[in-house]
Design goal:
single chain, 420 residues, Aspartate Aminotransferase, domain 1, Aspartate Aminotransferase, domain 2, seven-stranded mixed beta sheet, three-stranded antiparallel beta sheet, 14 helices
């Protein structure tokens, strides 16, 4: 095996030494947000070999059933319905719950939350978010309820639960269904109870970028027996037994190999979360005194997966905006990400269908231009975090000079571009 070269962070004596100008990148290899957690390979391959020997690759195989049972037990619910991804989990849950007309959701979320509704011919009504939590603002939500509203989807952004008690109270008072998009929140808790057992149902994503992954997958968890029965039919073409289709359905089944990955990752999830927690605390310590940078905090009294390291950048203080931070960090091979820019309401088809939505989403608009996610997980080491924080501190401290040089660089690039 060839030795991997390690490059230490060059002490930045001047702005010119940033990689975006003329310096060497701080990292030889790119550091990504959401690099997959990989379980112990021997255990994974043992299960894969057992699957191949059994020649049972899909259709509710024993590994899928085992994974469903273990997730249901971990979350504390009666039913877990494993699916091939989180988006189809959302779509079939929306249909099984008979949502129609209008459903209220935050715009500051992954586009799948909105798409699942629009795909089913339901209008997503975008609600603003609370600026500190980044979750749906329950006080603004009430004003959006109309005679056409049939439900609410709350999103546990970054794994931090939204105001479940208030959402439960509001939806019960107005006779609405309540679904939670818990794509970020596997392994997290709310007031001592595991996320997954709230509302009519909750949706998990087990995409490769998540703390717990099944290569690609998802699940719906619920305590509603009738809803669970509907969901199991819908994810398998409406089949009940052989040659007996009793309802409309599609193919949303999880494969056996995905369940194998899930079972093996489930055995390592405590280690994954422990590493995430250590990384979160290191980021918190090293960025605590950087003016203009706010790290999104987790409630240490609750269970968290600590899978998202999220900062807000205050351009008024740093003088460098979030998008410039992205450019500078990317040049250093720190592939930071803008989540969830520019907000669902500014993406198609919603931008064309509801062109004035942004006027009622001031906090969402602000956050979409301030939020930045930083690398964490098992692929990141403490020394990497130290270097990332040094770069962020250097940018924030030298913001005015960096901004001038960036403007000068852009002007120079424009002048050198050929005229078409």
């Amino acid at each position: 095996m060839p030795k991997v070269k390690v490059q230490t962070l060059i002490n930045r004596r001047s702005v010119d030494e940033l990689a975006i100008f003329s310096g060497r990148p701080a990292f030889l290899n790119e550091l990504y947000v959401g690099r997959p957690n990989i379980p112990e390979r021997k255990k994974l391959l043992r299960r894969i070999n057992a699957m191949l020997d059994r020649k049972w690759l899909t259709n509710r195989g024993p590994f899928v059933l085992e994974l469903e049972a273990k997730i249901a037990d971990m979350v504390g619910v009666k039913h877990c319905i494993a699916t091939c991804n989180g988006t189809l989990a959302l779509i079939i849950a929306v249909r099984a719950m008979q949502l129609s007309g209008e459903v209220i959701i935050p715009s500051f979320t992954f586009i799948a939350t909105a798409h699942a509704l629009q795909w089913e011919g339901i209008k997503p009504v975008f609600c603003d978010v609370e600026p500190r939590s980044h979750n749906i603002d329950v006080y603004r939500l009430v004003d959006l309820i109309t005679s056409r509203t049939t439900g609410v989807i709350g999103v546990h952004l970054w794994g931090r639960p939204c105001d479940i008690d208030q959402l439960t109270s509001i939806t019960k008072r107005h006779g609405l269904r309540l679904l939670f998009d818990a794509a970020h929140a596997f392994g997290c808790s709310y007031k001592g109870h595991m996320i997954g057992a709230f509302g009519d149902a909750e949706i998990f994503s087990f995409h490769a970028t998540k703390c717990f992954n099944t290569f690609e997958g998802g699940a719906i968890v619920t305590n509603d027996d009738k809803l669970a029965e509907k969901l199991r039919l819908m994810k398998n073409f409406g089949f009940r037994g052989f040659d007996n289709v009793i309802s409309l359905g599609l193919n949303a089944k999880m494969s056996e190999v995905a369940a194998v990955m899930g079972l093996t990752n489930l055995e390592g999830i405590v280690d994954f979360i422990t590493i995430n927690h250590k990384h979160y605390r290191q980021y918190s310590k090293e960025l605590s005194n950087v003016l203009g940078i706010r790290l999104i905090a987790f409630d240490e009294e609750e269970k968290n997966n600590y899978h998202y390291i999220v900062i807000e950048i205050d351009e008024n203080v740093t003088k460098v905006n979030r998008d410039d931070f992205v450019k500078i960090l990317h040049a250093e091979n720190v592939i930071a990400r803008r989540y969830f820019y520019p907000g669902c309401h500014n993406m198609e088809p919603y931008r064309s269908l509801y062109p004035g939505a942004g006027m009622t989403l001031p906090e969402t608009e602000k956050l979409a231009n301030r939020v930045l996610c930083l690398p964490t997980g098992t692929a990141v080491k403490p020394g990497d975090i130290n270097k990332i924080c040094q770069i962020i501190r250097f940018i924030a401290t030298n913001g005015e000079e960096i901004k001038r040089k960036l403007i000068g660089k852009d002007d120079k690039n424009k002048k050198t571009q050929p005229v078409m």
